[in-house]
Fold this sequence. Notes:
The protein has three helices and three strands. The protein is α+β, with helices and mostly antiparallel strands. The protein has one domain. Helix 1 packs across helix 2. It comes from Mesorhizobium argentiipisi.
Amino acid sequence: xxxxxxxxxxxxxxxxxxxxxxxxxxxxxxxxxxxxxxxxxxxxxxxxxxxxxxxxxxxxxxxxxxxxxxxxxxxxxx
Length: 78
């Protein structure tokens, strides 16, 4: 999936790994922390600890990015 970051949302990132999503959620999230953001952080960390499947983190990250209005394109398979 692709998200827009930066002061003007002009830097587009392709996020294709859970570790990358976790880094963005923990260190570079451009919006105030919301319920879906927290859920995505937890989902990514659970995957990185081997406690959950990648699909759960992906779904949570997409929902958080949509809530923060930084999602550039939706996955056609969702």
